[in-house]
Specification:
198 residues, alpha/beta, Rossmann fold, 5-stranded parallel β-sheet, 47% helix, 17% strand
Length: 198
């Protein structure tokens, strides 16, 4: 699967807008996850699969101007949108680079590795976390937010809901996404840690 095919929702202007709306919807929940994980003022953060920059700018607010955030994404259009949005928000300590997670390299080290709804699209999320954790300082934080799409429900389940749910799950399955990544997050972290130790 090529990089262009790996994200089933594509990189259109409509998708960029949907991501921004999703970012606004999830902002408080993601902020709570990051605070509980230990993100604080002055830290440096690597945001993988940053999309249009919502998680990066959120992390930048948490670490403040004494900290710094690097958001990486494989799509040039997403990176450009993220840069424009950060500039419009006056967030100068978040920067963005186009990079594929499989080949990303840097001389930098970070206090935290973060992401939201990105691991489900990776063929080997544990391997990716293991590889990218080499850029973490000792005691660094790994904080990700993922969903389990298979747990989506409605009570009572209406016919339209059941039909749309089946379409969504089929589409993401066909794209190779791991529908239950949220449920597998803990075991993925454990596997990444065991790979790092070998």
């Amino acid at each position: 699967m090529s990089s262009a095919e790996a994200y089933p929702l594509g990189y259109s202007q409509l998708e960029a807008r949907r991501l921004a709306e999703q970012g606004a919807l999830l902002e408080d929940l993601t902020a709570d996850v990051f605070r509980r994980a230990g993100l604080r003022e002055g830290m440096t953060v690597l945001d993988i699969g940053c999309g249009v920059g919502d998680v990066s700018t959120l992390a930048a607010r948490l670490v403040g101007p004494r900290g710094a955030v690097l958001g990486i994404d494989r799509a040039a259009s997403s990176v450009q949108t993220a840069r424009s949005r950060a500039t419009a928000l006056g967030v100068a300590h978040a920067r963005f680079e186009q990079a594929d997670l499989a080949s990303f390299e840097t001389d930098q080290t970070f206090d935290a590795l973060v992401g939201r709804l990105v691991l489900l699209y990776l063929p080997d999320p544990a391997g990716t976390l293991r590889r990218l954790s080499q850029y973490l300082r000792p005691g660094g934080i790994v904080a990700f937010q993922e969903f389990d799409m298979t747990a989506t429900s409605q009570v009572p389940a209406g016919a339209l809901f059941v039909k749309v749910r089946s379409w969504l799950l089929a589409a993401f399955t066909a794209a190779g996404a791991q529908l239950d990544m949220g449920t597998k997050l803990y075991s993925t972290f454990l596997r990444a840690d065991s790979l790092r130790r070998t």
